[in-house]
């Protein structure tokens, strides 16, 4: 098994840039949600790194819950079908919800989740997405708290995977083409 850095072609967003951006967003959210007793919902697995850094940067106490959703199979293309791998354990009725997500690509995952949370009776639903790929958007999603806009390249790291690997990279990066070889979706 090779060193994780050996599979990286180039870095798109550094660990330092990510941390600075998360601090900035968390400062805004701490003000906006001061009297709202928010419930932060992380969209697993991709949002795992983002939600930890983000909630630790907040200056207000929050509740956290987790929903594991999948729109991608093992390839690099979204299937468009959202599968609930694991549901929340919190009743969201009347709650002010802040979704923490790693990336908005087609927008289908978040569009589905926002609708679902409203259907369950949430009082409000807003989104913090660390990354957005505007070139790939297929459905409209209103992201109130934005991180970085990135080009249409398949990225990994900071929670984002390729075939379930590379989530543990501490920055956002593009893999070497050789990593996908013979494995293109
Ligand atoms: C990825 C990513 C987002 C979603 C974005 O999750 O983490 O949740 O796809 O794509 P979309 O905007 O086109 O819906 P994935 O389905 O790969 O599951 P994972 O988080 O467990 O990796
Ligand atoms: Mn995801
Ligand atoms: Mg994935």
TrEMBL record:
Q: Where is the Phosphoribosyltransferase domain?
A: 14-162
Query: What are its E.C. numbers?
Result: 2.4.2.8
- What keywords are annotated for this sequence in UniProt? Cytoplasm, Glycosyltransferase, Magnesium, Metal-binding, Nucleotide-binding, Purine salvage, Transferase
What general EC class does the enzyme of this chain belong to?
A: transferase
Biological processes annotated in GO: GMP salvage; guanine salvage; hypoxanthine metabolic process; IMP salvage; purine ribonucleoside salvage
State a GO cellular component annotated for this protein. Answer: cytosol
Record GO terms (molecular function): guanine phosphoribosyltransferase activity; hypoxanthine phosphoribosyltransferase activity; magnesium ion binding; nucleotide binding
Q: Which residues form a coiled coil?
A: none
Q: What is its main location?
A: cytoplasm
Q: Copy the pathway line from the protein's UniProt record.
A: Purine metabolism; IMP biosynthesis via salvage pathway; IMP from hypoxanthine: step 1/1; Purine metabolism; GMP biosynthesis via salvage pathway; GMP from guanine: step 1/1
Provide the catalytic activity annotation.
IMP + diphosphate = hypoxanthine + 5-phospho-alpha-D-ribose 1-diphosphate; GMP + diphosphate = guanine + 5-phospho-alpha-D-ribose 1-diphosphate
Q: Which domain of life is it from?
A: Bacteria
Q: Per its UniProt record, what Gene3D superfamilies does this chain match?
A: 3.40.50.2020
Record localization: Cytoplasm
Please list the cofactors this protein needs.
Mg(2+)
- Report the CDD domains cross-referenced here: PRTases_typeI
Family named by the database record: Belongs to the purine/pyrimidine phosphoribosyltransferase family.
Can you name this protein? Hypoxanthine phosphoribosyltransferase
Q: Which organism is it from?
A: Bifidobacterium vespertilionis
Could you read off the lineage of the organism from its UniProt record?
Answer: Bacteria, Bacillati, Actinomycetota, Actinomycetes, Bifidobacteriales
């Amino acid at each position: 098994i090779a060193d994780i850095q050996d599979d990286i072609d180039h870095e798109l967003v550094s660990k330092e840039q990510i941390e600075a951006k998360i601090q900035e967003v968390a400062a805004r959210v701490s003000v906006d949600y001061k009297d709202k007793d928010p419930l932060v919902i992380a969209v697993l697995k991709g949002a795992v790194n983002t939600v930890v850094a983000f909630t630790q940067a907040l200056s207000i106490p929050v509740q956290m819950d987790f929903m594991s959703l999948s729109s991608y199979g093992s390839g690099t293309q979204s299937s468009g079908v959202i599968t609930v791998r694991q549901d929340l354990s919190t009743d969201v009725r009347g709650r002010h919800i802040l979704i923490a997500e790693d990336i908005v690509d087609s927008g289908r995952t978040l569009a589905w989740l926002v609708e679902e949370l409203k259907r369950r009776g949430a009082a409000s639903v807003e989104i913090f997405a660390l990354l957005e790929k505007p070139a790939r958007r297929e459905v409209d999603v209103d992201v109130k708290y934005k991180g970085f806009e990135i080009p249409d390249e398949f990225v990994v790291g900071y929670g984002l995977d390729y075939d379930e690997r590379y989530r543990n990279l501490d920055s956002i990066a593009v893999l070497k083409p050789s990593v996908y070889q013979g494995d293109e979706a």
